[in-house]
Amino acid sequence: MSNLEVHFHEIGVLDRIAAGDTFVHRLDPRSKLLATLLFIVGVVSFGKYEVSALLPFFLYPVVMAAASGMPAGLLGRKLLIVAPFALLVGILNPFLDREILTAIGPVPVSGGWISFTSIVFRFMLTVSAALLLVGTTGIHGVCFACEKLGMPRVFAVQLLLLYRYLFVLADEGIRMFRARSARSFSGRAPGPGLYAQMIGTLLLRAIARAQRIYLAMSCRGFDGAFRSRTPVGWHVRDTAFLLVWAAFFTVARCVNIPEIIGSMFVQ
Amino acid sequence: MSHHLVEARNLSFSYPDGTPALKDVNFRITHGESVAFIGASGAGKSTLIHHLNGYLMPQAGEVRIGEVPVTRETVSGIRRTVGMLFQDPDDQLFMPTVSDDVAFGPLNLGLPRDEVDQRVTDSLSVVGIEHLRDRPPYKLSGGEKRAAAIACVIAGAPDILAMDEPSSDLDPWSRRQLIQLLAGFKHTKIIATHDLDLALDLCERVIVLHKGEVRKDGKTREIFSDEEMLLECHLEKPLRMQT
Ligand SMILES: Nc1ncnc2c1ncn2[C@@H]1O[C@H](COP(=O)(O)OP(=O)(O)OP(=O)(O)O)[C@@H](O)[C@H]1O
Ligand SMILES: [Mg+2]
Fold first, then answer.
1. B167 C-alpha to center of ligand 2: Å?
2. Rounded to a whole number, what is the distance in Å from the CA of A29 to chain B's nearest CA?
3. Which domains does chain B show, CATH number per domain?
4. Which of A53, A138, A257, B158 can pair with A18 through a Cys bridge, CB separation 3.0 to 4.6 Å?
């Protein structure tokens, strides 16, 4: 199997984990979606030089991963896959912003490095929260919650199909990639022209395939509404879950907890 | 019951790129019949099957399912009546686990939860794959995928089963299993296939398609004895009838 195939199957692992049955899995999708949104808003709204205040937010993915049995290794590998994007976004900061803001021991640290670190942290936090949401709720649950919380149904369905098409696209990609490597005997990389052609074909194939899948769904009565086999309902535990985390995020957003703890030790 | 009737009247269809796929096709299939559509590659079998549940709409003529013409208005009811098994089971399995996939149809019918669960269990046991319940469909073997796809279709309790190449990519044993399974169904069965031995086993009637036209329509044995016609349509006598 090529690397691509391994990654692809790992996205599928999320679906399987989502079928688990822990406290976190049993929560109403809406409470998890809302908690995740609050979390993301909290993390994203910090100033660009904020690093230490972000640290308490790591508690959320850690607790959620532990409580839901999501393997840390899987989460880590997923983060590594998206890491290049974070690096791409932040990598110029150290070069553009050289003003010295602080120092770690004798080493002066420029604003660029701080904002770079901040970006990487935020990426890790938001991506792992999103992965945990899908991994404990399932994409159907997430879309169901979106719709229940007022997202127009067409968008919720779009979201669902987008996720499914991701698989379709990856699958078609794998097949083509296999076919190509089976016929390129030199093992050399193909030229850019061939890649362009392959991508064009890939899109057409994915669209045709997506149409067939959509047909299969409508053949079995899909009318755009989400129906779930596991009964969902808002319980006291959902309110409690949401309130506890909302309180924690608010405190962590307004007060720099590590700084306070640090100053307690210094005194 | 008349609602098991499947009828095509002067059905013609060309693909948007101009490829003519069906030309003036006529047939009438009555309740409980098993009919095979055979023909060489490109003869129009899949195109025809796709007309039976409104994936493709007739460009000329009409298709009727139980006295109801297939139109945009009637298509959702028709899809409940006609269960469709696709040529590629990968197209049909799109949920995270096999049981979710099987539950998809019954849930959309608005059945209560315990009945949905019952249907899932029943359908899985009819095709003999209870043990695959919680497996993700994309990790199954070809034969297992086919079985799962069949379970999905029968969970919707259709009156008519339309199948496109149900025995392709199956090993001889799985193929046998499939034939036995299908032979046990009381539904009206419409099977598009290259597998003439399967047609011989399951269908009392065969319709031969050639270049988008109905070449011959008759009793299975008779059609398979007409070697000249079979050869003209790029087909061969089933192995079991060759001596
Ligand atoms: N999406 C499409 N666009 C254009 N032409 C098509 C399309 N699908 C099929 N055709 C053409 O329509 C004709 C009938 O195709 P169809 O798929 O119905 O054949 P088939 O009998 O199912 O063949 P096979 O046994 O290989 O599955 C063929 O000539 C084919 O090239
Ligand atoms: Mg075909």
1. 12
2. 17
3. 6-88+159-242 (3.40.50.300)
4. A138
